[in-house]
Specification:
Blueprint: H1 2-25, E1 30-39, H2 43-51, H3 53-56, H4 61-64, E2 70-74, E3 83-88, E4 92-102, E5 106-115, E6 119-130, E7 133-143, H5 146-154, H6 157-176
Antiparallel strand pairs: 1-7, 2-3, 3-4, 4-5, 5-6, 6-7
Helix pairs in contact: 1-5
């Protein structure tokens, strides 16, 4: 009886795994997560808080939620070539580098994660003037290998990453709107 029950549970588990795998295979090969907010400050005031990797890490939610993070800066402090390597149990390990900056409208970074899994993504911040405010968007996109697609069936990655982006944009808003 116990053997039959265990075999039945194993069969159900394998069936569920197969269903999740089939759903994962039907997902797109790329992903994109994006969040926006309106900041009551000109783009010229917000842009430097992203284009300077040290300033970026004063409001970056991943750096803030992992105070034990070990990091090192290299290259110029601002603009293309500004680079930051990081290692943290909470936020993962990897690096990001500014690869393009068009003042005051856009900053693009390359994010290379090495842990908890390998990933290479493009992160883009855009700043669009809307009257006296600036519509600020934080977006990330990249390839979605099978493991990422599989995990995406189980966990809502857009919601998880999006929540971090929303927290970061709120931090950036508070910093930029300070008098």
């Amino acid at each position: 009886m116990i053997k039959t029950t265990l075999l039945s549970l194993l069969a159900l588990f394998l069936l569920a795994l197969t269903v999740v795998a089939v759903i994962a295979l039907q997902r797109p090969d790329t992903f994109r997560v994006s969040r926006s907010t309106s900041i009551a400050a000109p783009a010229e005031k917000i842009f430097p808080l992203v284009n300077d990797v040290r300033a970026f890490n004063t409001w970056n939610p991943y750096a803030l939620k992992a105070p034990e993070m070990k990091g090192s800066y290299s290259g110029p402090s601002i603009g293309p070539g500004a680079h930051y390597d990081f290692e943290s149990k909470k936020a993962g390990s990897g690096s990001f580098e500014i690869v393009q900056a068009t003042a005051p409208s856009q900053v693009q970074m390359r994010l290379d994660m090495t842990a908890p899994f390998k990933a290479q993504n493009v992160v883009t911040f855009t700043f669009v003037t809307e009257g006296a405010a600036t519509r600020t968007t934080w977006a990330m996109e990249g390839p979605a290998p099978f493991l990422s697609k599989f995990m995406g069936v189980i966990f809502n990655m857009d919601k998880m990453i999006g929540a971090d982006f929303e927290a970061g944009l709120a931090n950036l808003k508070a910093k930029a709107e300070k008098a």
